[in-house]
Every structure is written in structure tokens, then in C-alpha cells.
Amino acid sequence: MARSSRDTLSGEFENIAFLFDSSRKISLDLKFPVDTSYPPSTTVEQIPPYVPLEASVRARCRQIWVPLTAWITSLIATILYSLFIYRVLIVSNPKIGSWIVDASEANLLLSIFSQLYAMLLLFMLQGLLDAMRWTLASRADEGGTSASNFFQLSPGTNWYSVCRLIYNSGFRNSWGLLRLALPFVGLAFGSLLKFQNTFEYHFVSGEPTIDVFAGTLIPDITTLSSIPTSYMAAFFDTWAQQLNNFPRYAKAWSLNDCTGECSSMFLPGGMEIARRVGPFLNRTVLKDGTFENVEAISIESAPGLALRFDPLGEDFKFDIQTECKAYITMGDGMQMCLRQMNDSIAASWRACPTIHTVMKTCNTIKYWGTDPLETKTLMTVYRQNATTIYSRDSLAIQQITKTSEPKIAFVSAPDTRAIWDHIFTPRNKSGDLDYQSINVTLHRLAWKYRTYFEWFPDDDAPVEQLQNFLAVPMQFGVTAMQYTNYTMATPADKRDFTREMVTTATGGKSIQKFVGQIWTSWTFITAGIFIVLSSGSAFWWIITRGNVVPNPSGVIEIDFASKLVGTARQSIKESNPDSDIERYRDMVRDSSQRMDTDSVSLFRAFKRWRVEIEGTEKMEQKELQDGYPSLLKFSAARNQLSADES
Predict the structure, then answer these.
(1) Distance of alpha carbon 302 from alpha carbon 184, whole angstroms
(2) Is the pLDDT reported for residue 433 higher than 50?
(3) Do 480 and 614 reside in the same domain of the chain?
(4) What is d(CA 144, CA 619) in angstroms, rounded to the nearest whole number?
(5) What keywords are assigned to this protein (predicted)?
(6) Which of 172, 328, 461, 634 is deepest in the core (most CB within 10 A)?
């Protein structure tokens, strides 16, 4: 029994799935090449009424209102989120109005907002690609668009089919790669701000604020004569073991080109060394309970010293006779060498070996002090201002922020030698306490050196101890000036501090803030702005064209099927044996014959077809006159039609 036209259309509608083939082309104005076997039509085409541009643009905006709304939302989100990133990460100020964004909150917000922002851009771009494929297919003057590209950009085409479409097109139609890459690019884009981030302390100022003397300076050796040897020995004995790791006084620092075996540290002075501004320097910052009820104290832009230590090669040797000196005590001794190297000093030392301490021959330097020294370093000092945050409870350094660039400072080798002589050489007025301090200090330094140098030769403890020994005068040179000030041991003109040490100490609280890489922040902002602006340009191109995709329902199958239904109705009314629906039937039959093979054969069948859809203005007229939706038309390639006819 012959099937009715309705049954025929129903059966053909069920074969819509076969249209998704890489070798076919789709055009939104699905018209076929002109067949010269039919006489030309004498019908006079009616000119459509004039439609103002503003009304036409508004109508086209309504047709793609979903992705266009996503673009507007993306634009607003880009502006707001970029300002947030600039404030929190680039300016590195976690205070927004009265809201203070600590590290944990910033980490959480950046994680959530970045992923949501990436998802929003992804949704908008997918909608743009969908609208773009229909717009490209509406180019009636260019015969629509490639079926391969049309189905690659469809949200309903899975990733495997997209890859097969690209492969079967010989990689000439590879727009689907963009759609496949969007989720992965969005995931990486949303995680960009979390790359190499850290937490740092941030000071939130409060009350009170007072004037103080703070910071460190190159030591002034004119104060040596006023300081007892026992005091000096005690400082060097204590801090030569741990200064670089002591959180109240020192912090690891970054200097240009200081990598590998080079090390550096910064000495901001310390809360214990800071003094209230006044004629006498015996009033500490914490005296009188001024900062009793605060969590942290910030000392603003005080002078500090950055110390850099570089290794010296094996070929670097000191002149034992002129640059080295031995300090001998009861049953022990150390040999210390110094050389002026421009603004820096090279230093080296060694202790009397264990065998000589047992044999009581350390006082004979020729037995152990003639070979080249192995423990050596080069110290360079830079002056640099910095703001330092201290914990009120532990007085430990929480954060150091530089406020000036480092400038190299001259360190005198003769002055350093004078300091060493004052520590290890008794003077005429030295008492028993001074002698005992000298013996204890030399023995403790020598014992630690021997232990690591002889029994743990791979450990850098002897070099680290030498570096600390060189750093002690830099850290406590201000302490020596304070001692001579409040004891009035020096003339009046030597008692006042230099004005560069005058600064302020402010009470408040410290929080940890989120710190990211500056380049990742700018890259994120720039990429977001570029995506929004470029997609905005694409949307403007779509809505200002003469033909735009008809109103979509949001359901791909329904949108596609509705256009086929319109094509079928129009074909019935025209009763044209070579109409678009007949071409569609040819395509369905062509695809159906390949069902017995696999999807690869189905994709290859797409090479025979193009897809086209009627434009908006023409569609609106037909909808009003005939009551059916826009027409989806399938046309075979011209070379394929010629082959079929032959």
C-alpha cells in the first residue's frame, strides 16, 4: 500500500540524525544551484517593505537574546572582578572599605569567582558559536556554509563526532577544535590566579602612633673604648651561633643575582633595639605599656642593612703574614683573616685542630696556621629602608616590606679588625671577667668549628658561623651607640642619633593576606577583557547582518526539526519535483544507505551536501503569509549534481 505524504514526511523526519555528517554543508537559505534545464521564471519578486535599522537590530537581538544576555553579564562581571583583582592582588591591599579580606577569604573567593567567571565566559562563547553557525549558514549569496563546520559547532554534536568530522574534512574544516578546547581552556583560565601564590602578613593600623629611633647602621668604632670587653664577647659568643635564624633580628632576603651558593639576609634592627625619641636612649618602645593592647607593631620605613654572602673559590688565598692574625688563649686558639675587596670584605678563619689542643701546642701557630684556609666568604652590605611588622607578644618579625632600593655601603676591613681585636685581646684595664669572657668566647667558637670541620666536613656550619660572626657588628652597632649614650661615656656630640633613624611606630593588628603573582593577575584581567570585547564584536557582526538565525527555542533537536517541517510544507505547496525537500530526501537516502557500515561512512556522506537557511526578513514574510517557520534547505554540491545528471 502506498504511504501517504504525511507518513512519508514522518519517516523522513525520523532520519534527521543522519544529517550530522562531516562531508555535507549547511546553509540557512537552503537553495539549490540553478538548473538550466528549467525555463527561467517570469515571476516578479516583491520588494520587502523598508525596515528601520534600529528596529531590525532590536529584532535580531531578540532572536539571540540568551547568548547576548550572557555577554552583557560577562561584561559586568569582567569590570567588577577586574577591580577586585586589581585591589586585592595587584595593589595588594586587602582592605575594601570597612571589609578586610584575609588570606583564607581571598583564597576562597578567588577560587569560586574565577571558576564561575570562566563558566560564564564558556557559556557565552558556546552560545556565540551556535549563533555564528546559523548566521554563516544564512549567507544565501555564498551558498551557506560547510555542513562539516555547521555540525562541528553544534552543541549537540559530541566530541568524538566532532573529531571525525574534522578528520574526514582533511582538517580543512576544523572549527570544532575551538568548541572542544573551550572547557579545558576555561578550566586552566579559572585556575590561573592560584599559580604560585603565597600568604603574607599585612598590617592594619590602629592606635597609638609614636616617634621612635629605629633601624640599623654601619658600626661606629669610636664607641669601642667605652664598651667593656666582657660585653662585646658575650654578644659575639651568643649571636655568632644563631643570628641569621633568630626571628627577632634577621630575615631571609632577596637581592639581585644572589642565587645558588649565594645567601642574603636583612637586619631591620628589631623591636628591642628601637627607642623612643628623646635626649636619652634608655626608653624602649614597650615601656610604660603604650602598646600593651595591640596585636602587632609596625615601624615605618626605618633604615636597615641587607647582607650578602658570596662564596670564594679555591684559588682565592689570603696572605698569612699580612692579612691573618691568630688569637690564642689557654689551650685553644683561632686564626682570622681579612682583606678589603672594594666596598666589601673577604674573611676567613680556622680553629686550632683537635690534635694540637690535646698536645697543648695551639700557642705555636706555625704548627697549624700556615696552610691555606678553607672556610671563607665575601660579605657585601647594602643600605635599604623597609617597613617592618613585629608581633607584640613574641617581638618576632612578621613581615618586611622594602621602601627603597638597596645601595651598597662601604665596610672597612681595618674597622672590622679593630672590633675583633677588642673582643679577643685583653687591655691594660681588663679584669678577671674580661679574661674569662675572652677564654670562653674563643673556646666555644673554636669547639664548634672543630666539631663540624673535622667530623662533618660536608656541613656548611663553619661558613654559616663565620657569616654570623661578621653580621654581629652590623646588628648591634646601634646597641653600642645606645650604651654610650645613656651611660654618658662619650662626648655630647657623639650621643645623638642620626636623623635618618627617626620614624614612627604604630600599633594595630596583623592579618595574613593572599599574595599572587603580578603577571598572572594582569594576564587574567587582559584575557578576560579581550574575550569580552572580541565576542562583543562578533555579536555586533551577527546582529547587523541582513540574515540572522530565527528565534531559537534552546532545544537543538526542536530548532532543527522545525526548519525541516517548514521545508516539507513549502515543498508540498510548490509541488516542485526538484524542490529542497527532494534534495533533503536524497540526502536522507544517501545517509540511510550507509547505516549498515558505521559512523565514518555517514560522515563521509556529508561531503556531498551544503546547508542553507532563509534570512530573517524573508522568513518573517513567509511566516506571515504561509504560517510555517523558516525553511531549512539542503543542496548538493555543483560537481555532485553534474555527476548525478550524467
Answers:
(1) 48
(2) yes
(3) no
(4) 16
(5) Membrane, Transmembrane, Transmembrane helix
(6) 634
Q: Residue type for 635, please?
A: S
**345: Cβ–Cβ under 8 A, 6 or more apart, which residues?**
338, 339, 378, 379, 411, 412, 413, 416, 470
Contact present, 511 and 103 (Cβ < 8 Å): yes
For residues 25 and 150, give the distance between their C-alpha atoms in angstroms, rounded to a whole number. 7
Model confidence pLDDT, tens digit, residues 19-63: 444 444 444 444 434 444 444 444 444 445 544 555 567 777 777
**What is the value of pTM for the model shown?**
0.67
Provide the grid cell at 66: 540568551
Single out the residue in 467, 488, 515 at which a domain terminates.
515
Query: What is the pLDDT averaged over residues 231-240?
Result: 91
Domain termination residue (choose one: 515, 532, 548): 515
Please give the Cα distance from 625 to 106 (Å, whole number): 59
SS3 content of the chain, % helix, strand, coil (to 5): 50, 20, 35
Q: Rounded CA gap, 573 and 566, in Å?
A: 11
The maximal CA–CA distance of the chain, rounded, in angstroms, is 133
Q: What is the DSSP letter of 16?
A: G
**pLDDT tens-digit readout, 603-636:** 555 555 555 655 444 444 444 444 334 444 445 4
Is the CB of residue 612 less than 8 Å from the CB of residue 28? yes
For residue 541, give every residue at least 6 positions away whose Cβ sits within 8 Å of its Cβ, in sequence order, or none.
none
Residue 250 and residue 149 in one domain: no
